[in-house]
Amino acid sequence: MKLRIQLYRLDRCGFYRRGRQDADFGSIQEWYMDFLGWLEPKRLAGVPLPHTSTLAEERNDVPLDIYCVGVTEDGRGNFGVSLFSRSLGEEEGGTVMAPDASLGNPTFLSNELRPGAIPGWLSYFWVVPAENIVVALMPARAVASIDSFREYFLGYLRSESEYLDEMYQKVDVATGTSKPVYRYKNRRGEYAHGVFPSLQVSQEVSNAGQINSIKNSWREIRSFIMRTETLYLAEEDKGEGVVNKLLDSSLFKPKEETQSNQSPP
């Protein structure tokens, strides 16, 4: 299995007013610990993976979903998250989740699609909130992409975060249909009229300081992937396999280590 790695910048993250470029509140630095706290009771209870979904609005209309299968933080303000994007059927290069898989205890099937099993794509994201950077690692053929990250966390901000003040159904008199309406509050608990959640990313990471922040996290990134054991590897890829080769690349080696490996002039 080949992985690809891409670096993204968080261009927008938080709650905005229409026509404004800057968020009123809700930067990722402000809420990522809340997100970890939201998941922790689910992990301790061993709840089924669908309980980690954040796509409340889309769930009834689209048969696909996104689950969290693993999460960690390094104590320095960075965190990693493993997301599993459901697919309509088993696909080459994809992953099959066992029926009893749960947050922090994912179980994968390598050769069969048993009743109740969930086919899909697994991807890893390492987030550096202070730099607004997301490192994405995913199978080379995966349908899952940075869109999985964007949709999952946008859903979290919209309907699961501490910023949600109230949600109610508004009925369209003409059609008789209803749709959810969300009201939000800031960290002080004050109602914020007219704001909406937004999360946008772009693949434009070139700042040297941002790149160095990622390089300095290479050990945590590898440890996260290997420790959570959420990546199914073929036998020939284990040991000094694909993950180690990828994360031992020069991109992820700290500057001092890269320099020490170079021949003296």
What structural keywords apply?
6 helices, three-stranded antiparallel beta sheet, disordered C terminus, 11 strands
Strand and helix layout:
Layout: E1 3-17, H1 28-45, E2 66-73, E3 79-86, E4 95-97, E5 108-109, E6 118-128, E7 133-139, H2 146-160, E8 164-171, E9 178-185, E10 191-192, E11 195-202, H3 208-215, H4 218-228, H5 242-247, H6 255-260
Antiparallel strand pairs: 1-7, 1-11, 2-3, 3-6, 4-5, 4-6, 6-7, 8-9, 9-10
Describe the protein in words:
The strands form two sheets. Strands 1, 2, 3, 4, 5, 6, 7 and 11 form an eight-stranded antiparallel sheet that branches. A three-stranded antiparallel sheet has the order 8-9-10, with helices on one face. The protein has 265 residues and is of the alpha+beta class. It has one domain (3-163, 190-260). The chain is built from six helices and eleven strands.
Query: How helix-rich are the residues, as a percent range?
Result: 10-25%
Could you say how many structural domains there are in total? 1
Q: Pick out the low-confidence regions.
A: 229-265
Helix/strand order: EHEEEEEEHEEEEHHHH
What is the number of helices? Answer: 6
Shape: globular
Secondary structure: number of strands: 11
Strand share of the residues?
25-35%
- Overall radius of gyration: 20 Å
Major sheet details: 8 strands, antiparallel
Class from helix and strand fractions: alpha+beta
User: End-to-end distance, in Å?
Assistant: 38 Å
Summarize model confidence as the mean pLDDT.
Answer: 77
